[in-house]
C-alpha cells in the first residue's frame, strides 16, 4: 500500500478466494513439532487402529466359517458355540480397543490443540505492536481458534480414519486375494469404476464445499455487520435495501449449497451402486464357480466376500471428506505458522538486568527511528524529563509524538541513538522491569470484561479493595461508580454498561494511579468528552501527574501550561523547547499551533462577567482544586481588567 | 411441541418436495430390503438347487435394484436438501427483516455475540433437522418396522431372540443423550469464554504491554484453555465409551443370530439363505435404532434452537408504525417537546418534563454532564425510542403518528460512535441515499473535508474500507460519517459530539462547513467547542434529566448559573489565550 494509512489488515492467507491450487503442504508437515511430544501416545493409537482394522477383518471370516460349518452334517453344537464365542470375543476385544484408541486419541488431540493454542497465545504476547497494526483482531482470533481447530480435525480425526481406511482397504484386498484370488480379481473389476467416479467428482466436490463455506461466511459477515451497525441502519432508513442485499447473499448461499448437495446426491448413491455391482459379481461369479464344481468356493466364502465388498466401499466414501480436511488443515497450518514465524520486534537482550524502581529520569539521546527503517519518522530527537517533571509533547497530527511514546515503552527499538531511564539504556534492562515502572493512559480506553473493581485492579494485581476505592476517589470516579447498579462490582460489558467515554477515561486514570508508576505516559484525548467530564478529568489529571515523571501528548491547555517543558514536534524533529511563556514569546511554530488549537471567537471576550466561583463550584457538585479555582479567578479578574 | 409446529409451518410451503423425498425414502427402503431377499434367493434358490440358469438374472436383479435405489436416493437427497435450504433461506430472511425492525432498546440489551450465535448456529441446527433429520426419523421408523416385519415373516422366533439387546440399546442411548447434552453445552460455554478472553487480549494488547501484564494474561488464558481441554476430553471419553458399547451391542445381536440360527440350520429348521439374510437385516435394523436415537436427540436440540430463534421473532419492536400511520409531509423543521419524560426501563426517569419549542432553522446546543440525558434527548427525535410521557411534534405532527421511514429519512444523524460498513467509500457516504449522484456524493465529502483524502487514494471513492479493506483513522471515519449525514440533505440535523476525534485544524474547517449548512436547518448539537456553542441560536443546559437553563450565550452568561461556570472553567481558557496572544503581538509590535 503506497499511501499513508493503516494496512488492509490481512494478507494473502486471509483472502476469501484462496485457491486450492495455491495450497502449500509444507506447513502441514511442520505441525509435527506439536505431535512429537506425544509420540508414544500417537504410536499407540496407530498400533491400536491397525489392530482394530485387522480384527475387524476377522469378523466376516468367522461368520463365513459358521455358515460353512452349519451346512456340514457332522458338526457338533460345541464347534458352533466355540466359533460364535470366538466371534463375540473378537467383538469385545474390538470394542475395548476402540474405546482405548478413541480415548487416547481424543486426549492427545485435545492436548495438542491445547498446546497449540497456548504456544500461539504466549507468542502473541511477545509480538510487537507492529504485528497488531498489520493484522486485524478478528483475523488473529480466527487463527487461534478456527485454524487450530481445523488442524486438530485432521490430526486427531481425519488422519486416523484415513489410516484405518487404508489398513482396511489393503487388509480386505489381501484377505480376499488369499481366500480366492479369482473371485477377488472379479470383484476388483469394480475398482476402476470407483476411481473414475471419485476422479470425476472429487475436484468438483472439494470446490463446491469450499464455495459453500465462503458463502456461509458471507452471510455471517453480513449479519455481524448489520447487527453491530443496526443503529445506523435505522437512523438512515436503510432497512429495505439491506433486506434486499441480505436476501441476495442468502440466495447465493442457497445456490452454492444446492450445487454441493447435488454433487453429494450423485456421488453417494453412485458409490452404492458400484458397491452393489461388486456384490452381484461375487454372487454371479461365485455361483458360476460352484456350478463348475470349484470346491474352493462355498456359500461361506461368498458370504465373506459379500461382507468384505460392502466394507470395502465404506472407507471409500470417507476419502472425499478426508481429502477436504487435508486441504483445510494445510491452509490453516500455513496461517498458524505465519504467526509463529513472526519474530517479536523487541526482545530482552541476553543478560538484561532488572531495572528495579526508578527515580524517573528519562532521556532521549539523538534518537532516530522509523517503522520502516528507510522512512524514519523521528530524526535525532533529544528529550529530557528529570524526576517528577512533567513534559508536554505538542505538534500536528503525524508529527511523531506517538512514536516517541512507543519508543519509551519499548514497543519498538530505536534505530540509532539511545533512550536512558535513570541512566540505563532501556535495551539493557528487561522489558518487564521497564514497563513495571511505566504507567500509560491511552486515548481510547480499553476496559476488560469483568467488574469495575477488576478493571481498576489491573493496575496492581495485589491491591486491596480499599486501595482500589481510594484510587477511584482520588481521580473522582468514585461517585459515578457508586451510582452504577452494583457499585464496584458492576460488570463492564460489551457496551460498557452505558459508561461514557469520560467515565471510561476516569477508570483508566484510577488504574494508572493504582499502578503508581514512576513514569506516567499520557495520550490525552482530543476533545471526546463533554464540558463537565472535561472538568473532572482535569482535576483527576493534576492528582495523577503529581509526584512522578510525566510525559504527556497534550491537547488540553491546562496540561500544556502546567508542563515544566514543552517539546514542539514537527516532521519527526524537535522544533522548539521551552515553557509556554518562552515559546509564545518565540513566536514560532508553537504559537501558530496554539492559536489554531485554542482560538475562540475574537469578539467581545471582555463582556464575560466575573462570576461567583463559589456558587459555580457548588453547582458543579465538586470540591474543585484550590489551584484551579484560584487560577480561574485570577484569569477572570485579568480579563475584567482589560 | 409448539416450537416444532411453528418450525414445521416454515416447511409447509415446500410440502411437495418433502412428500417427494419421503416417497423416495420409502422407495429406497423397499429396494434396500430387497437386497438381502435377493441374496437369500440366490443362496437358497439358485445355489442350493443348482438353478445356474437363473444366476445371471439374480445378479442383474441385484444390480438393477441398486441402480433404481440410486436414482431414488439421488432424488431423495436432492429434494431434501432443496427443501431444507429453502426453509432456512426463508427463516434467515425473516430473522434479518425482524432484526432490522427491533428498536434501539433491544440492541441496548442484546450482545452481538449471542445474537450472532442464534442467527448462525441455531439456524444451522434447524436446517439440519428440517433438511434431513425430519425425513430420516420418519424413514428410520418405517425402515425399522419394515425390517422387523420382514424378519418376523422369515422366522419370528429368531427375530425375537435377535431383539434381546435392543432394550439395552435404547436404554443406553437415552442415558447417553441425557449425559452428553449438558456436556456439549458446557463446552460451548467454555469456548465462548476462551474466545472472549482471547479477543480482549488481542484488542487490548497495548494496555497488556503497557502494564506489563503478560504473565497475568497468560495465566488467565491458560486457565480457560485448560478448562476447555478437560471438558472436551471428558465429553469425548463419554462419547467414545458410548460408541464402543453401542457397536458391541449390535454385534452381540449378530452373535445371537449365529448361535441360535446356526443350531436351527443344523436342525434343518432354518435355511442357510435365511440366516445370511438375517445377518444383513439385523445389522440394518440396529443401525436404524441407533440413528433414530441420534436424530431424536437432534430433534430436541432443534427444538431448543427453534425456541431461541422464535424468541427473537416474537420480540415486538418497541418502536413501530402505528396502524394507518401516514408519511410525514416534507419537514419544515419545527420541533416541539411537550412535557416529555423518558425512562429506559419505564421506571427511572432519564428525562423529566422537557418542554422545548424549536423553530425551523434554529440551532440548539445542548450542554450537560455525563448522564444528564443529552444523548437520550436527541435520540427521541428520530424515534429511536418512544417517549414515556408527553409527546414530540414535528411541524405539528406527533411523531408517533407518522411512518418511521418518512420521519428518519428527513433527519440527518451523526452519532457518537462512528460506525462504517465494509463497503466502498461511495456506498458509505451514500448510505442513507443510495440513489445519490456522484456529484452529490462529492459535494457531501467536500463539506465534510474528506474529499482530498479520498482523492489521494488509488481507488478514490471506490476504495473498500472496513474489515476487508483499508483501515481509516478515527478522524477520517468521523468525517465520512459526517458526509453521510450531510448527503441526506435533511431539514433536521442531529450531531452528537461529532467532531471529537478529528484534529483541530480539520475540525475548524468542518465547523465552517457546518455553519453554512446549519443556517437554514433545524439542528441539535451536543458540542464541546465554544464556537459551536456560541453560534447556536439557543443553548439548553441539562442536569439530571431536566432543562435547568435555556437561552443565548449572552443571556446565560448574564444569569451566572451553571453555564457560566462551565464557560469559565472550560471555555474561558480558550479566550484567555486569545487575549494573551493579542497582548504578546502588541508587545512584539511595540518593540
TrEMBL record, chain A:
Gene Ontology, cellular component aspect: plasma membrane
Keyword annotations: ATP-binding, Cell membrane, Membrane, Nucleotide-binding, Transmembrane, Transmembrane helix, Transport
Organism the protein comes from: Candidatus Fermentithermobacillus carboniphilus
Membrane topology: Multi-pass membrane protein
Signal peptide, first to last residue: none
Location, primary (coarse class): membrane
InterPro entries: AAA+_ATPase, ABC1_TM_dom, ABC1_TM_sf, ABC_transporter-like_ATP-bd, ABC_transporter-like_CS, P-loop_NTPase, Type_1_exporter
Domain ABC transporter: from-to ranges: 362-596
SUPFAM superfamilies: ABC transporter transmembrane region, P-loop containing nucleoside triphosphate hydrolases
Top-level taxonomy: Bacteria, Bacillati, Bacillota, Candidatus Fermentithermobacillia, Candidatus Fermentithermobacillales
Positions of region (Disordered): 620-642
Keyword Membrane on entry: yes
The organism's place on the tree of life at top rank: Bacteria
Domain ABC transmembrane type-1 positions: 44-328
Name of this chain's protein: ABC transporter ATP-binding protein
Pfam families: ABC_membrane, ABC_tran
Subcellular location: Cell membrane
Keyword Metal-binding: no
Segments traversing the membrane: 34-57, 80-100, 160-177, 183-201, 265-286
GO function term, MF aspect, one: ATP binding
UniProtKB/TrEMBL annotation, chain B:
Location of the ABC transmembrane type-1 domain: 19-301
Domain named ABC transporter: residues: 335-569
GO MF term list: ABC-type oligopeptide transporter activity; ATP binding; ATP hydrolysis activity
Entries under InterPro entries matching the protein: AAA+_ATPase (IPR003593), ABC1_TM_dom (IPR011527), ABC1_TM_sf (IPR036640), ABC_transporter-like_ATP-bd (IPR003439), ABC_transporter-like_CS (IPR017871), P-loop_NTPase (IPR027417), Type_1_exporter (IPR039421)
Record GO cellular component, one term: plasma membrane
Coiled coil: none
Protein name listed in UniProt: ABC transporter ATP-binding protein
Transmembrane segments: 12-34, 54-75, 134-154
Membrane-topology annotation of the record: Multi-pass membrane protein
Domain of life: Bacteria
Lineage per the UniProt record: Bacteria, Bacillati, Bacillota, Candidatus Fermentithermobacillia, Candidatus Fermentithermobacillales
Alphabetically ordered keywords of this record: ATP-binding, Membrane, Nucleotide-binding, Transmembrane, Transmembrane helix, Transport
Localization in the cell: Cell membrane
PROSITE patterns per record: ABC_TM1F, ABC_TRANSPORTER_1, ABC_TRANSPORTER_2
Amino acid at each position: 500500500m503506497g499511501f499513508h494509512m493503516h494496512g488492509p489488515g490481512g494478507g494473502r492467507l486471509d483472502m476469501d478466494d484462496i485457491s486450492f491450487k495455491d495450497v502449500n503442504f509444507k506447513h502441514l508437515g511442520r505441525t509435527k513439532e506439536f505431535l512429537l511430544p506425544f509420540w508414544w501416545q500417537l504410536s499407540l493409537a496407530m498400533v491400536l487402529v491397525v489392530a482394530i482394522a485387522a480384527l475387524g477383518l476377522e469378523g466376516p471370516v468367522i461368520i463365513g466359517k459358521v455358515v460353512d460349518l452349519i451346512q456340514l452334517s457332522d458338526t457338533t453344537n460345541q464347534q458352533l458355540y466355540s466359533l460364535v464365542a470366538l466371534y463375540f470375543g473378537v467383538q469385545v476385544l474390538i470394542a475395548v480397543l476402540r474405546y482405548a484408541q478413541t480415548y487416547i486419541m481424543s486426549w492427545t488431540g485435545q492436548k495438542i490443540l491445547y498446546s497449540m493454542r497456548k504456544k500461539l497465545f504466549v507468542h502473541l504476547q511477545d509480538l510487537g505492536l507492529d504485528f497488531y497494526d498489520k493484522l486485524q483482531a478478528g483475523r488473529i482470533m480466527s487463527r487461534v481458534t478456527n485454524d487450530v481447530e481445523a488442524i486438530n480435525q485432521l490430526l486427531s480425526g481425519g488422519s486416523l480414519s484415513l489410516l484405518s481406511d487404508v489398513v482396511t482397504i489393503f487388509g480386505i484386498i489381501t484377505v480376499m486375494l488369499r481366500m480366492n484370488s479369482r473371485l477377488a480379481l472379479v470383484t476388483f473389476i469394480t475398482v476402476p469404476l470407483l476411481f473414475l467416479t471419485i476422479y470425476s467428482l472429487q475436484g468438483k466436490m472439494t470446490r463446491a464445499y469450499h464455495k459453500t463455506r465462503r458463502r456461509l461466511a458471507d452471510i455471517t459477515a453480513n449479519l455481524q455487520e448489520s447487527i453491530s451497525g443496526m443503529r445506523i441502519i435505522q437512523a438512515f432508513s436503510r432497512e429495505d435495501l439491506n433486506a434486499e442485499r441480505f436476501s441476495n447473499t442468502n440466495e447465493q448461499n442457497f445456490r452454492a449449497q444446492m450445487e454441493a448437495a447435488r454433487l453429494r446426491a450423485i456421488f453417494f448413491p453412485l458409490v452404492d451402486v458400484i458397491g452393489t455391482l461388486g456384490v452381484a459379481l461375487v454372487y454371479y461369479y461365485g455361483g458360476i464357480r460352484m456350478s463348475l464344481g470349484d470346491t474352493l468356493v462355498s456359500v461361506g466364502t461368498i458370504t465373506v466376500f459379500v461382507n468384505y465388498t460392502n466394507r470395502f466401499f465404506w472407507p471409500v466414501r470417507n476419502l472425499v471428506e478426508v481429502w477436504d480436511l487435508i486441504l483445510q488443515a494445510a491452509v490453516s497450518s500455513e496461517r498458524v505458522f505465519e504467526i509463529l514465524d513472526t519474530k517479536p520486534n523487541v526482545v530482552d537482550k541476553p543478560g538484561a538486568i532488572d531495572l528495579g524502581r526508578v527515580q524517573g529520569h528519562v532521556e532521549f539521546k539523538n534518537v532516530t527511528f522509523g517503522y520502516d527503517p528507510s522512512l524514519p519518522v523521528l530524526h535525532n530527537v533529544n528529550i529530557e524529563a528529570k524526576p517528577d517533571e512533567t513534559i508536554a509533547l505538542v505538534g500536528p497530527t503525524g508529527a511523531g509524538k506517538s512514536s516517541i511514546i512507543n519508543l519509551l515503552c519499548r514497543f519498538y527499538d530505536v534505530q540509532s541513538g539511545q533512550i536512558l531511564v535513570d541512566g540505563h539504556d532501556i535495551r539493557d534492562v528487561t522489558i518487564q522491569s521497564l514497563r513495571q515502572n511505566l504507567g500509560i493512559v491511552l486515548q481510547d480506553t480499553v476496559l476488560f470484561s469483568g467488574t469495575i473493581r477488576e478493571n481498576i485492579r489491573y493496575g496492581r494485581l495485589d491491591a486491596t479493595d480499599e486501595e482500589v476505592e481510594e484510587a477511584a476517589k482520588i481521580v473522582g470516579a468514585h461517585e459515578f461508580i457508586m451510582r452504577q447498579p452494583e457499585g464496584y462490582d458492576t460488570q463492564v460489558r460489551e457496551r460498557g454498561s452505558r459508561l461514557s467515554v469520560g467515565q471510561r477515561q476516569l477508570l483508566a486514570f484510577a488504574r494508572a494511579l493504582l499502578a503508581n508508576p514512576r513514569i506516567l505516559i499520557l495520550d490525552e484525548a482530543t476533545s471526546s468528552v463533554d464540558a463537565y467530564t472535561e472538568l473532572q478529568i482535569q482535576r483527576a489529571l493534576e492528582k495523577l501527574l503529581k509526584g512522578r515523571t510525566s510525559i504527556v501528548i497534550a491537547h488540553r491547555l491546562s496540561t500544556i501550561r502546567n508542563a515544566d517543558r514543552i517539546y514542539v514536534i514537527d516532521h519527526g524533529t524537535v522544533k522548539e523547547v521551552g515553557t509556554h511563556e518562552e515559546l509564545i514569546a518565540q513566536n514560532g511554530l508553537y504559537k501558530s499551533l496554539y492559536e489554531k488549537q485554542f482560538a475562540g471567537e475574537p469578539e467581545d471576550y471582555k463582556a464575560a462577567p466575573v462570576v461567583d466561583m463559589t456558587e459555580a463550584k457548588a453547582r458543579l457538585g465538586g470540591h474543585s482544586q484550590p489551584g484551579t479555582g484560584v487560577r480561574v479567578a485570577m484569569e477572570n479578574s485579568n480579563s475584567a481588567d482589560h | 411441541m409448539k416450537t416444532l409446529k411453528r418450525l414445521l409451518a416454515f416447511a409447509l410451503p415446500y410440502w411437495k418436495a418433502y412428500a417427494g423425498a419421503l416417497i423416495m425414502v420409502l422407495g429406497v427402503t423397499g429396494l434396500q430390503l430387497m437386497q438381502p431377499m435377493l441374496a437369500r434367493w440366490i443362496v437358497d434358490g439358485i445355489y442350493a438347487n443348482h438353478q445356474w440358469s437363473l444366476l445371471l438374472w439374480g445378479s442383474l436383479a441385484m444390480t438393477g435394484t441398486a441402480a433404481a435405489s440410486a436414482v431414488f436416493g439421488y432424488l431423495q437427497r436432492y429434494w431434501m436438501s432443496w427443501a431444507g435450504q429453502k426453509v432456512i433461506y426463508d427463516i434467515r430472511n425473516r430473522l434479518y427483516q425482524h432484526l432490522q425492525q427491533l428498536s434501539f432498546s433491544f440492541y441496548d440489551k442484546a450482545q452481538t455475540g449471542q445474537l450472532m450465535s442464534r442467527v448462525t448456529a441455531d439456524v444451522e441446527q434447524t436446517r439440519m433437522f428440517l433438511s434431513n433429520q425430519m425425513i430420516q426419523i420418519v424413514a428410520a421408523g418405517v425402515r425399522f418396522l419394515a425390517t422387523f416385519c420382514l424378519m418376523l415373516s422369515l422366522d419370528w422366533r429368531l427375530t425375537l431372540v435377535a431383539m434381546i439387546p435392543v432394550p439395552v440399546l435404547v436404554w443406553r442411548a437415552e442415558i447417553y443423550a441425557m449425559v452428553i447434552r449438558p456436556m456439549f453445552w458446557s463446552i460451548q460455554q467454555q469456548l465462548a469464554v476462551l474466545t472472549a478472553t482471547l479477543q480482549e487480549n488481542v484488542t487490548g494488547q497495548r494496555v497488556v504491554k503497557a502494564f506489563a501484564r503478560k504473565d497475568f494474561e497468560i495465566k488467565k488464558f491458560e486457565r480457560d484453555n485448560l478448562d476447555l481441554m478437560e471438558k472436551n476430553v471428558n465429553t469425548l471419553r463419554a462419547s467414545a465409551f458410548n460408541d464402543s458399547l453401542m457397536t458391541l451391542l449390535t454385534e452381540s445381536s449378530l452373535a445371537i443370530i449365529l448361535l441360535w440360527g446356526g443350531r436351527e440350520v443344523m436342525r434343518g429348521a432354518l435355511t442357510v439363505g435365511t440366516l445370511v439374510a438375517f445377518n444383513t437385516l439385523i445389522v440394518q435394523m440396529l443401525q436404524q435404532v441407533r440413528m433414530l436415537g441420534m436424530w431424536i436427540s437432534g430433534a430436541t436440540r432443534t427444538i431448543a434452537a427453534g425456541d431461541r430463534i422464535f424468541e427473537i421473532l416474537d420480540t415486538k419492536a418497541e418502536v413501530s408504525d402505528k396502524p394507518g400511520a401516514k408519511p410525514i409531509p416534507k419537514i419544515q423543521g419545527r420541533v416541539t417537546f411537550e412535557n416529555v419524560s423518558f425512562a429506559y426501563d419505564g421506571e427511572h426517569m432519564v428525562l423529566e418534563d422537557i418542554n422545548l419549542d424549536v423553530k425551523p432553522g434554529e440551532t440548539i446546543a445542548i450542554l450537560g454532564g455525563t448522564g444528564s440525558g443529552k444523548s437520550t434527548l436527541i435520540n427521541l427525535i428520530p424515534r429511536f425510542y418512544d417517549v414515556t410521557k408527553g409527546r414530540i411534534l414535528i411541524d405539528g405532527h406527533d411523531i408517533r403518528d407518522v411512518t418511521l421511514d418518512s420521519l428518519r429519512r428527513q433527519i440527518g444523524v451523526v452519532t457518537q460512535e462512528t460506525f462504517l460498513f465494509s463497503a466502498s467509500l461511495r456506498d458509505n457516504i451514500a448510505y442513507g441515499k443510495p440513489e445519490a449522484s456522484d456529484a452529490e456524493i462529492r459535494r457531501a465529502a467536500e463539506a465534510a473535508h474528506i474529499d482530498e483524502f479520498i482523492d489521494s487514494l488509488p481507488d478514490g471513492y471506490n476504495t473498500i474500507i472496513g474489515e476487508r479493506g483499508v483501515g481509516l483513522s478515527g478522524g477520517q471515519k468521523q468525517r465520512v460519517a459526517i458526509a453521510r449525514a450531510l448527503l441526506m440533505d435533511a431539514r433536521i440535523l442531529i450531531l452528537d459530539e461529532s467532531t471529537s476525534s478529528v484534529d483541530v485544524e480539520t475540525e475548524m474547517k468542518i465547523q465552517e462547513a457546518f455553519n453554512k449548512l446549519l443556517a437554514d436547518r433545524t439542528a441539535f448539537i451536543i458540542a464541546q467547542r465554544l464556537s459551536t456553542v456560541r453560534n447556536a441560536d439557543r443553548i439548553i443546559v441539562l442536569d439530571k434529566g431536566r432543562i435547568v437553563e435555556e437561552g443565548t450565550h449572552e443571556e446565560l452568561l448574564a444569569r451566572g448559573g451553571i453555564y457560566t461556570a462551565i464557560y469559565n472553567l472550560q471555555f474561558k481558557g480558550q479566550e484567555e489565550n486569545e487575549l494573551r496572544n493579542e497582548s504578546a503581538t502588541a508587545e512584539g509590535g511595540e518593540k
